[in-house]
Amino acid sequence: MTQEDLRNLFSSIGELESCKLIRDKLTGQSLGYGFVNYVKSTDAEKAISSLNGLRMQQKTIKVSYARPSTPLIKDANLYVSGLPKSMTQEDLQRIFHPFGRIITSRILVEPSTGMSRGVGFVRFDKRPEAENAISSLNGTIPAGAKDPVTVKFANNPSQKNQQVLQSLYAAASPTRRLAAPTTGPLYHQARSFSDLLSNVNMGLGVKRHLPSKCAGCTAPSAASSSCAPNYGICIFVYNLSPETDENILWQLFGPFGAVTSVKVIRDYQTQKCKGYGFVTMTNYEEAFLAVCSLNGYKLGDRVLQMSLTKPSGAA
DNA sequence: TACGATT
Q: Which family does it belong to (predicted)?
């Protein structure tokens, strides 16, 4: 939605004094909210009663009175993971409401099934309420659940966009390409990697740095995995260096076939890779070959290990 | 830091 869309929608109620769509500072992308001032307060009331809850495309818009702008309401948004799949938004609110006024909350779902992904968000009115919720709830086990939940401050959308831009820049940067070839790990990777691929393409056995039993490949029926089985095969990759970025995973797995997503798991504070990541591939045969080929592959000074992700909830 | 998930 553009600023103009916002203006058109809300000016249909009454005369506007001002109207502002909030955008990311770097990318200019809408952050999904904005502020509208009406000349007459009765029009503001009308806007809330007629537009709140309106469904637009995939979204349900929320319209309410803006809270007074103060530093206290900033950074009060929490990210919650490890929730039982059976937990509803109402359950989530029940758990968090003792700590303060909840502005919004939601549980993320798999689009295809509507099933909970076990993660969600809770935005409190005030920062100290959010802090209290973290210290009281993080690591605790909800009633009736068997695993503890993680409660922490949510990532800031502009931080996330910065990461994406940096990663794109790093991939495209000529200095990076010139600096790497003779000494960097990418050079060594590229040479031995192409050897490896030519082996694969000729249908020959694959050299490995470890005597590999192809972990995770022994039971092809285990193709179902915790990560979106409808969307592909999810591969767990371990022993990545702290400097690993998404591009490296794309480069490693892309030649084996269709890769739908890659994820480097990072420490939130340092933004360094925690040593592992995930790659989702569309086709089982290609994923199988990638795991068999890349397990034991030496990237820089590290021997990679990989397997299909641990199935979840299987008896 | 051997299984994430960021509206």
A: Belongs to the RRM elav family.
